[in-house]
Amino acid sequence: xxxxxxxxxxxxxxxxxxxxxxxxxxxxxxxxxxxxxxxxxxxxxxxxxxxxxxxxxxxxxxxxxxxxxxxxxxxxxxxxxxxxxxxx
Length: 88
Ligand code: FES
Fold this sequence. Notes:
The protein has helices at residues 21-27, 59-64, and strands at residues 2-6, 9-13, 46-51, 70-72, 82-86. It is globular, with a radius of gyration of 11 Å. It has a single domain (2-86), classed as Beta-grasp domain (Ubiquitin-like (UB roll)), CATH 3.10.20.30. By secondary structure, the chain is of the alpha+beta class. The longest helix is centred in the first third of the chain and has 7 residues, at 21-27. It contains two helices and five strands, in the order E-E-H-E-H-E-E. Strand 1 and strand 2 form a beta hairpin. The structure holds FE2/S2 (inorganic) cluster (FES). Residues 34-36, 38-45, 72, 74 line the site of FE2/S2 (inorganic) cluster.
C-alpha cells in the first residue's frame, strides 16, 4: 500500500492492483468527475502531480497530450507515496 495525499486527507492505495487510481479513490469516497467513465478521452479525471512516482503513461494517456506534471487518474496508479491535486 502507498499513501496518496489529496485535499488534506490521506488515502491508502494498492499500488499492485490493476484498478486505476480513480477507481481506488472513488471506492474511498472521493468524488472524481469521470465523463467518459474511465475510457481516457474526457480528461475530467485529470490531476496534477505534486510529488510521487506513477505508472508509465498508457498509450491512451499519451494520446491526450496533457501538460507536463498532469496525469489521468483513470489511466494510472501511484508506485510510491504521492501528493496530488484534482483539476476538476
Ligand atoms: S474518466 Fe475520462 S479521461 Fe479519465
